[in-house]
Amino acid sequence: MSVSEQGLLVPDSGEFDLPVYAKPEPGNHPPLDFPGYRSTALRHPRQPLVVLPQRLTEVTGPLLGDGLITMGDADLTTQHAGEPQGQRIIVFGQVRDSGGRPVPDTLLEIWQTNAAGRYRHTREHHPAPLDPNFTGTGRAITDAGGRYRFITIQPGSYPWGNHRNAWRPAHIHFSLFGRAFTQRLVTQMYFPGDPLLAFDPIYNSVPDERARGRMVAEFSLDDTQPEWALAYRFDIVLRGPAATIFEEPHE
Amino acid sequence: MSELVTPSQTVGPYFSMRLPWPEGPYVVPEDAPGAVTIFGRLYDGAGDPVPDGLIETWQADPAGRFAHPDDPRGPVPDGDQAFRGFGRCPTGHDGSWKIVTRKPGPLPSGDGRTQAPHLDVSVFARGALDRSVTRLYFPDETTANTSDPVLQTVPAGRRHTLIAVPAGPGLLRFDICLQGDHETVFFDL
Q1: Which residue is catalytic, options A96, A118, A168, A179?
Q2: Domains of chain A
């Protein structure tokens, strides 16, 4: 190591290797311009994107968690004096990268409607009742195996005015950081068998059908708690290492 | 064999229920030595402010280092640990946002070259199915900016969209245009 002109500690050669995060396959993510979702029209870049090489700023990222999470953040049913209305559910899963490695100690943030399909938000005007016992927001940190678990209420569907008779399928918003700027992800979790999925431009904006399926949770009878709550498994896959030709052979 | 990743979806109009937190815009306190306030507005393709957007920033510390295991230069020295270069600010009704931080140091590119001080910026919004990624550079780094390996790849006529504008002592302005004549340069990461 030596000190550069800028006073930096750098490896002597000034050259070093960094992790490389694979580019998602075409069709894995939605396009920014998607006419079926009208609000994309004025909010997508029209100029070509410039390729950003993955350097130090891109392969690092905020390792959040300490001090942000308090008891009860992961249980959306116990944040008020009384119990919220609706179907109690457990939403759990593993956060891993596309190479199959668990992503430990990473922050998940979620927000959703109440059982009636109403968000607790000042700009929300859907004439469905608010629930004084439900805020609809939560946080959790993955454990060493990348696992997380929320307890919440089955969210409702709501009209959103994008087109005639437009209703969002029930969903929970998820925000994740992973371990690197490249891995940052905001997505939505949907429920299996929801008849509105077929008509939802936001869900259907993802070109690859298999990738769309990644956003649909799986009902788990094994994890359902008798006499208490249904369980849905939602594994989340973030960008992982790019394959290299120098990879060690596996036994 | 690698798996498909979970696709991105829009943050929608109600992310402010959860994502903003009070200290989010303050990477450092406003009265910290060397604090600089970066502020600006987020605009759509019609030139209208975007009132339901979210700006996030990520950057090196003033020495150009990251408190992160994948920074090959090893742990940052004791005393600098408190700096966590992440900022988050929702846009207001007029599209305005701000981040209070310290200017990062220059940092090695890994190929023997040096990157000019910069912030990586993510823009989320209702109507955006994925984030848009841009970079913010500093106006008082003319020499470093000229040799920055990333800025060099940006068409010369558009580089200015990535360089903040001085707006007074300790103040920098950085407007972000999602589309239109003044469209900010966005990156494919």
Answers
A1: A168
A2: 1-243 (2.60.130.10)
